[in-house]
Design a protein that fits this description.
It is a single chain. This protein is α+β, with helices and mostly antiparallel strands. Helices cover about 30% and strands about 25% of the residues. Helix 1 crosses helix 2. The protein is globular, with a radius of gyration of 14 Å. The chain starts with 9 loop residues before the first strand and ends with a helix.
Length: about 110
């Protein structure tokens, strides 16, 4: 899907992948651009830094950290709510991913 963009733009994307911080970062950078404006992104295992009831499992620290560092800091997504360890984000606008990814690779 990422390489071809065949099914993009997507209405809904659920990311439940590797728990390694760097892999989650890449998942966000690779797949977030495939969502259309108004699309929903659900991140699995990403609620560790939220104020959750004790009986709720919050997820994985590395996943939550990558979501905090690479999704919450974006200006094109807003966090809507969490359902246990799953966090739901709304894509609020389009963004020039090639410029942003090119800048991060170069510098």
């Amino acid at each position: 899907i990422f390489e071809t963009g065949e099914y993009a733009p997507l209405d809904l994307l659920y990311i439940d992948g590797s728990h390694a911080y760097e892999d989650v970062e890449q998942d966000i950078k690779n797949y977030a651009p495939l969502l259309k404006k108004g699309g929903i992104l659900v991140m699995d295992d990403a609620s560790c830094f939220l104020n959750m009831p004790e009986e709720c499992w919050p997820g994985i620290l590395s996943v939550s950290g990558a979501v905090r560092d690479f999704l919450e800091t974006r200006d094109d997504f807003v966090h809507c709510f969490a359902i246990g360890h799953n966090r739901v984000f709304l894509k609020t606008k389009e963004r020039n991913e090639q410029t942003i990814q090119g800048a991060s690779k170069d510098g």
